[in-house]
Structure formats: structure tokens, C-alpha cells
Design a protein that fits this description.
Length: about 190
């Protein structure tokens, strides 16, 4: 691991544990075992470090969602694939996943919220696009694509959060059936 990647990983760990605003540059350099000039060489500022973490982690996550949302002629299959991305990311990259959610729920004028906003907006647009694409097949979606995208994201994120609280996430996510049952629960709701 090079210095840049080490700094990204150490900062992400600290931001996840204590929140972006609570962590100082000094704590990051101490945790990473580097000097301040080294951090500033790569990132220029704490905000620059945050932007780099988000690009490093959110870009591949969003690309996976985009790729899964494009290649199916069946809404259920598309939603299952997207659900599996959320579930696997929460399992394999727990710190990133929950840091991403925490930033979204931070104060709207906070610089950390402003940094995550474009990535989460993109995720929401990708999900809205999935529902838009299937509107001709499912007439009751017309004009409600954003509502369905919000509901779908809400179900996934709440499910993952509750399982983390119960320390049951890894067990639940290793089952292929979880994504399928979440999607079918959601689909039943939109058709009722």
C-alpha cells in the first residue's frame, strides 16, 4: 500500500468511527504514520482528502450500480442485482458504506454533505432511471419513478442498518435469497 492509499484508508477508518468533523489532520497523520507535509502533498486539505475518499470509493460503487441497472429486460432481476451491490458493499466495505450514509444525513450546509451529495444524487438518478425504463411495462409507475426509487433505497438501507445493529449482517447477506426476498417485498408493495 502506497502512502496515498494508506492515508485514504486511515482517514476513512477515523471518519467512520468518529465523524468527519470530529477528526483532525493531526489524528490522521498519527494514525497513518506519516507527516503533515506528506498528507498535504497528496490532498492539500482535509476537505481534499474527503473528496478523494469519496472518489476512490463512491465512483466504483456507483459504476457497479450503473452497470447492473442497464442489462436486464426484467425489473425484478435489475432490482435484485442492485440490491446485491448494496448488500455486498455493506458487508465488504462496512466503514465506507456507513460513512456514506452518515454524510448524507449530516447538516445540508456542512462541507461533508456537500461532498457526498453528487454521488448520492447519481445513485438516486440511476435508480429512478431503472423505474423509468420499466414504466411502459408497469403502468402504475408512470409519474412515480422517483417515489419508487426513494422507497426502494429506504428499504435496502434500513434493512442493512438493522442487521448491523443485530450483528447479523454477514450471516444474512451470504444468502442469495435476501436480495430476492427484499425485492419481492418491495414489488408486492408497489403493485398493491
Amino acid at each position: 500500500m502506497d502512502n496515498r492509499e494508506k492515508i485514504l484508508e486511515c482517514a476513512l477508518q477515523l471518519f467512520y468511527q468518529r465523524g468527519y468533523d470530529a477528526v483532525s489532520i493531526q489524528e490522521i497523520v498519527n494514525h497513518a504514520g506519516i507527516t503533515k507535509p506528506t498528507l498535504y502533498y497528496y490532498f492539500k486539505s482535509k476537505y481534499g482528502l474527503l473528496e478523494s475518499i469519496l472518489e476512490y470509493k463512491c465512483r466504483p460503487f456507483n459504476d457497479r450500480i450503473r452497470n447492473s441497472s442497464l442489462y436486464s429486460a426484467d425489473l425484478t432481476v435489475s432490482l435484485c442485482e442492485i440490491t446485491k451491490i448494496y448488500l455486498s458493499t455493506a458487508t465488504e466495505e462496512k466503514e465506507f458504506f456507513f460513512f456514506m450514509l452518515a454524510l448524507f444525513y449530516s447538516a445540508k450546509e456542512n462541507e461533508s454533505h456537500k461532498a457526498i451529495h453528487p454521488y448520492l444524487t447519481e445513485q438516486f438518478q440511476l435508480l429512478s432511471g431503472v423505474f423509468e425504463r420499466f414504466t411502459p411495462q408497469l403502468g402504475n409507475m408512470r409519474g412515480r419513478q422517483e417515489q419508487f426509487a426513494m422507497g426502494f433505497l429506504g428499504i435496502i438501507n434500513l434493512y442493512i442498518t438493522v442487521l448491523i445493529e443485530k450483528n447479523n449482517l454477514n450471516k444474512a447477506i451470504t444468502q442469495e435469497q435476501v436480495a430476492y426476498s427484499l425485492v419481492h417485498q418491495f414489488m408486492h408493495g408497489i403493485f398493491s
